[in-house]
UniProtKB/TrEMBL annotation:
The keyword Hydrolase does not apply. PANTHER family: GAMMA-BUTYROBETAINE HYDROXYLASE-RELATED, OXIDOREDUCTASE AIM17-RELATED. Residues 123-358 form the TauD/TfdA-like domain. One of its GO terms (molecular function) is dioxygenase activity. Belongs to the gamma-BBH/TMLD family. Its cofactor is Fe(2+). It comes from the Bacteria. This is TauD/TfdA family dioxygenase. Pfam families: TauD. Keywords: Dioxygenase, Iron, Metal-binding, Oxidoreductase.
Length: 378
């Protein structure tokens, strides 16, 4: 049985039910009303602004009514029904995270221990089964990357992967880009050298948040793909040396790309980015695109470089990496704000042809949420 009480001044109410209790301010409740005068029934968007709500809004009365909580506001004299489960799901009356670098619910950081359990889906299954697609997208959201197997071996097949959850983000590199390398090449532009784990395009603001790499040819020995969880690397740095963690979160690095005529891309962002409440939201690490660091005070520059060096060492630690080889028709999707990717070097003879493109994580998360809502409604 639910119980509700209103503060003496009407500024907030307290609702208790089944061992749970939460307080809600009058202005918050009024702003989050779902009546037809406040929200559009079709899409849920607000029909009023905060300026349309009286500054002196307070709770006149509140009472339990079945599964709902009916609240009457003064001075409007307006009554609104709230679903109590919705209120508890959106409660802000809770202990807030306090340690800088905390990760959101549903995020699971990892290291090389994930090697035998790489999140993987089947292209045919996720293309035809909403349940299989939801499960695969949920793994990508949780771990920051995921593989797809048994896709078509055809030019442009990666676009069919993006179509599963969103839209291609076109850049100066085009809708997609070619990754062709030949072992013992006649031209060093097609080198088989390995690459350090990195995030792509840190010089963009915002960066592309999802990258797809799709394999069409793979006859060379070596060339395995490697991924590293940048969030786990940030956690290790914080545990080892909080001052170094603070240096990389508290000061901006600079990144730049000016490798083609008419293109000068620059950004100024921290290598480890936190939200104002300390949530770990992004990692940017790409030594090839790093510009001169000028936003760190003289007194902190040596500390900053020590932290930068140590973060690189953690990223390079084999205990942090998960490796896998892509065969033709296979691909992987990576959260480019979190997971660093690389490739091992080549040896012997052969070729390797991948196609890559960018997309946006909001599309992936939107598709995941919509699939979850549809499944719950069945």
């Amino acid at each position: 049985m639910a119980d509700v009480s209103v503060s003496a001044d009407g500024g907030f109410l307290t609702v208790a039910e089944g061992g749970r209790s939460a307080r809600f301010h009058a202005i918050w409740l009024r702003d989050n009303a779902w009546d037809a005068q406040t929200r559009a029934p079709g899409n849920g968007q607000r029909l009023i602004t905060l300026a349309d709500i009286p500054k002196d809004t307070r709770i006149a009365t509140a009472a339990v009514s079945g599964p709902s909580l009916r609240v009457t506001f003064a001075p409007e004299g307006k009554s609104v029904d709230y679903d109590r489960d919705w209120l508890f799901r959106h409660s802000y009356d809770r202990t807030q995270q306090s340690q800088p670098g905390w990760t959101a619910p549903g995020i699971e950081t990892w290291d090389s221990g994930l090697m035998g359990n790489v999140p993987t889906g089947d292209f045919g299954d996720v293309s035809t089964s909403p349940l299989a697609l939801r499960r695969w997208l949920a793994d990508v959201a949780r771990y920051g990357f995921g593989k797809l197997l048994n896709g078509p071996v055809e030019d442009g097949a990666l676009m069919k992967v993006v179509d599963l959850f969103g839209f291609v983000r076109e850049t100066n590199y085009g809708r997609h880009f070619e990754v062709r390398t030949t072992v013992n090449p006649s031209n060093l532009a097609y080198t088989g050298l390995g690459l350090q784990a990195h995030t792509d395009n840190p010089y963009r603001d915002p960066v592309p948040t999802v990258q797809v790499l799709y394999c069409l040819e793979s006859s060379a020995a070596g060339g395995e793909n490697m991924v590293v969880d940048g969030f786990r690397a940030a956690e290790r740095l914080r545990q080892e040396n909080p001052d170094w963690f603070d240096a990389l979160t508290g000061h901006c690095a600079r990144f730049e790309y000016a490798g083609e005529v008419g293109v000068v891309l620059r950004s100024r962002r921290p290598m480890i980015e936190l939200a104002p409440d300390g949530e770990l939201v992004a990692v940017r690490f790409n030594n090839r695109s790093a510009a001169a660091i000028t936003d760190v005070p003289f007194e902190r520059m040596e500390t900053y470089y020590a932290a930068y060096r140590r973060l690189g060492e953690i990223i390079d630690d084999p205990a942090m990496e998960v490796t896998f080889r892509l065969s033709p028709g296979e691909c992987f999707v990576v959260d480019n704000t979190r997971v660093l990717h690389a490739r091992k070097g080549y040896s012997g003879t052969g070729t390797r042809w991948l196609q890559g493109c960018y997309a946006d994580k909001d599309g992936l998360l939107s598709k995941l949420a919509a699939l979850g809502a549809a499944e719950a409604a069945e």
